[in-house]
Amino acid sequence: MWKSLLRLLPGVSGKALDSAEARAESAGLHLRDVLEAHTAWKKRLERLLEEGDEGRIDLVTIADDRICELGRWLHGPGKGAYGRLPEYQEAVDAHAAFHKAAAEVVIEYKSGAHERAVELLRGKFREASNHNQMALVNLFMAGRD
Question: Does residue 115 lie in a domain region?
Fold first, then answer.
């Protein structure tokens, strides 16, 4: 997980990521767990496109950025701890964009536009996923002061 983040964050060391993780833990968020949970959505969406739905993906859950652990934290304790930082709003916006992009993949797939769903997964969703991860790490790196 950290190796992929280091590629997205040039100039950031593994030690800096470990420090960000420690700050997240002290603020009540398991950074590695929420990053892995959001990364797992790519696999779930790929499986959807390869195998079909079979009711496994709930559009309401995927579209709402306040339901997952990170969303509950961002709109709850995280706001109190980090809401004063500009990086906080960036993290909130990036997280919402991630959920919106994931929902768009599902909507296109369920409407029969499978090729468009694949394009979204490989393009908009991937970009939103990377931005979500970077914004969250940047939030905790900014919060070190």
Answer: yes
Per-residue pLDDT of the chain (145 residues; tens, 9 = 90+): 556 655 666 666 777 777 777 877 887 888 888 888 888 888 999 999 998 876 678 899 899 999 999 999 999 999 998 999 999 999 999 999 999 999 999 999 999 999 999 999 999 999 999 999 989 988 888 876 5
Domain contains 97:
yes
CB 131 within 8 A of CB 6: no
Structural domain for 136, as ranges = 57-144
Is the Cβ–Cβ distance between 144 and 99 less than 8 Å? Answer: no
**In a domain? residue 2:** no
